[in-house]
Amino acid sequence: MLPYGRQSIDESDIAAVAAVLRGDWLTTGPAVDAFEREIAAVAGCEEPAVTVTSGTAALHTAYAATGVGPGDEVITTPLTFFATATCAMWQGATIVFADVCEDTGNLDPVAVEAAVTDRTKVVAGVDYAGHPIDAPALSKVAHAAGAVLLEDAAHSIAGSLDGVPVGSLADVTTFSFFPTKNLTTAEGGAVVSHSAEILGAARDFKSIGYTRDRAKWCSQEDEGVWYYEVHSLGLNYRLPDVLAALGSNQLTRIAKFKKRRQEVTDRYNQGLADIPELVLPAHRPGADPMWHLYPLRIVDGRRRELFDHLRANAVGVQVNYIPVHHQPIFAELGWRKGQFPIAEAYSAQEISLPMFPSLTDDDIDRVIDLVRSFVRA
Q1: Is the pLDDT of residue 18 over 80?
Q2: Taking the model in full, what pTM does it have?
Q3: Residue 71 pLDDT > 80, yes or no?
Q4: Is position 259 annotated as part of the catalytic site?
Q5: Which domains are seen in the chain, by residue range?
Q6: What's phi and psi for 343, nearest 5 deg?
Q7: How far are the Cα atoms of 174, 224, 265 from residue 133, in angstroms, in the given order?
Q8: What's the CA angle centered on 117, arms 116 and 123, to 5 degrees?
């Protein structure tokens, strides 16, 4: 079975992990410090990133760091993995959905503006499939409401918009390093920002809420080196050195990964062009995506049949995503099918074709031939 996604691991990755295993640090240590500086550099940020144990942990940490709490509203997209919404709910926030743009599947600034209230705390956009959000427009809407723009960039590290790297487009940005993502730490994630205040709060939250920083202590005594203070609630989301070492080594090849993902996208585009039943991924001017998915849409109502046809021919495909507001947990809160027609139509038509750097041209051509033969049948 040809998978729809696959990690890209080579012998240098294995050697990097083995070096840590032979050393003195397995948990958070010097490899994490180095990886955090390297992630910040890719994101165009001066302050080191705050690394965590997963993309979900990154979202939870970012919401906590921006002060999201009970009574606040977080506006987000229904076309995402549900953690974009549920992590804000863990902080007590109310989720407000807004529809997406028909071309990119990204959060629509016009829909967000209509959803803003005086309780809006965060606008959380998702770089669907790797295409960056319209950050300038979303920032304008969010900031006019006194809110923060969060970019869920789980799909898009190393992408950019108008020359500005993903990580510097929003007030706070989260990354995921799951195996199928654009680089991996096996499991992991990160928070980046140009705000030292947000990063400080994020670092405290992911470190169980305690600090060894003397400048932050309430105690004025000359305490011993063992001393620490707990100033806020937090969780243990600390990334270990053994995983950070893998991430650092992956970063040395991220430009290569990006180039190949674009080549895969271009080959799919060329092979599937000019078929009326298909809509290919949008690519807006000024955007330089880091393609995580190839989200093909079939508009003749046969998505399930195409999905089954490809699976029957040993091609792994996926659907990204089931609209979040369709989930029972949100139905209980009053959200209903039909409220976000663009996101729902996108989801009903979408099928993610195989996409990873080691995908061969022959593999791509086989997928193209299977799609074309199905559509013409």
Answers
A1: yes
A2: 0.97
A3: yes
A4: no
A5: 11-251 (3.40.640.10), 254-376 (3.90.1150.10)
A6: -65, -40
A7: 13, 48, 19
A8: 45
Q: Nearest CA to 102 among 135, 131, 143?
A: 131
| Active-site entry in 121, 140, 181, 216 | 181
The answer to whether 78 and 107 have CB atoms below 8 angstroms apart is no
User: pLDDT category, 98, cuts 50, 70, 90?
Assistant: very high
Q: What pLDDT sits at residue 216?
A: 85
User: Residues with Cβ < 8 Å from 42, sequence gap 6 or more?
Assistant: 157, 158, 165, 167, 251, 254
Confidence of residue 215 (pLDDT cuts 50, 70, 90): confident
Peptide bond into 321 cis (omega under 30): yes
- Selection from 149, 194, 216 nearest residue 47 by Cα: 194
How far apart are the C-alpha atoms of 377 and 368, rounded to whole Å?
Answer: 14
Q: Strands across the sheet with 50-52, in order? A: 50-52, 189-193, 172-176, 148-152, 120-126, 73-76, 94-97
Tokens linked to 225: 């080196």
Coil, strand or helix at 283 = coil
Asked if 175 contacts 190 with a C-beta cutoff of 8 angstroms, the reply is yes
What's CA 291's distance to the chain center, in Å?
12
Per-residue model confidence as pLDDT tens digits over 307-322: 999 999 999 999 999 9
In contact, 290 and 261? CB cutoff 8 Å: yes
Residue-wise pLDDT for 240-269, tens only, equals 999 999 999 999 999 999 999 999 999 999
d(CA 308, CA 13): 35
Tokens of residue 251, six digits: 């970063």
Per-residue pLDDT band at 3 (split at 50, 70, 90): very high
CA distance 43 to 290: 13
State how far the alpha carbon of 83 is from the alpha carbons of 95, 116, 149, 155, 170, in Å.
Answer: 12, 21, 17, 14, 19
